[in-house]
Amino acid sequence: MSKVYFKRVISNDSEALSLAAKVLFEKIIESTAHVFSKEVPIKVHFGEKGNTTFVPAVCYEGIIETLKKNKIKPSFIETNVLYRGSRTTRESHIALAKEHGFTALPIIIADGDHGEAYDEIEIHKSFFETCKIGREFSNYDQFVVTSHFKGHGMAGFGGAMKQLAMGFAARGGKLAQHSGISPVVKASRCIACGLCVQKCDVDAIELGEKAVIIPEKCVGCAGCIAVCPVGAIQNDWSGENFKEKVAEYAYGAQLGKDNIYITFLINVTEECDCMGQHMEPVAKDIGVFASKDPVAIDTACLDMLQREHGHPIFDAGRVTIKHAVEIGLGSDQVELEAI
Asked: CA-CA distance, 205 to 190, in Å (whole number)?
């Protein structure tokens, strides 16, 4: 059984949410006798351009204050996205983060300029032998992993485990979770410019009248997706066993780390913060949760959301919870304590 702390915040007030996160963060530190490293990045999601329901930057002020009070050097850390958009490259990603108010700390994009920088983390589970985790994550042994609990079309819900799985994965790791591994070229769009061939480090792309990706050589880094100027190289979104793969990548992301997890159960939308549009909430705001166990905090959020919503919502995500327990990521037996 794992401990999860909770503080109710029913008004979508950023300052109240920041204070709640601070109180819970300090409670976790005290109750677990947590010993910090000298530098502890805060894993965040900056929100896609056009999205209005991501967790605002001001909500992290209490966490930052607590880290600095403990003489810990904080930063924001994130990885580039798999799809083409404002968060595809380091430069545009950081620009959008600052536009969304994330200016209080230095920003680390963990997987390089185009998602090409990663380390292979061995896990030897049912679907993955290794995970492609953004290289900068290897430089730290602790993170404050903050999450926004909401819906997700393929995962059922997005919370702490998805923040680990997709949020720590380099672009190739994101692709591996979504599909078989290799992206595809849409011939009708390809202009045979050769940029993808130049980008590929394993000679997996041949150029004739159109570019062609050789699956046997492709390592799934997905760097070609980022450099294609016309969007001709695309993801295979088939997502077979996607929920179980999320659990396994979450396992790889936290392996050997001593993380604290803080989740905001507010602005509960059907889709994730990668959607570049305004979305209406589908449930009322509930508050903030904190734990050392990513499975337990997701379970606590989902259970409370379903109780207060009045009927099951995002229940497909329980597949991820079940597999996460089976592989030893954490526990779905929760001791919830309200603060």
From this structure: 13
Stretches where the chain sits below pLDDT 70 are: 180-181, 219-222, 236-239
What residue has token string 């602790």? 142
Phi and psi of 252, rounded to 5°? Answer: -65, -35
Indicate if 169 and 309 belong to the same structural domain. yes
Tokens representing 39 are: 């530098």
- For 208, counting Cβ atoms within 10 Å of its Cβ (0-12 exposed, 13-18 middle, 19+ buried), the class is exposed
Provide the residue type at 329 as one letter.
L
Same domain, 29 and 89: yes
Are 91 and 166 within one domain? Answer: yes
**Residues 197-209: tens digit of each pLDDT:** 998 877 999 999 9
Separation between Cα atoms, residue 163 and residue 181, nearest integer Å: 20
Q: Say how far residue 88 (Cα) sits from the centre of its chain.
A: 14
How far does Cα 9 stand from its chain's mean position?
23
Find the domain containing 281 and state its range: 2-177+239-338
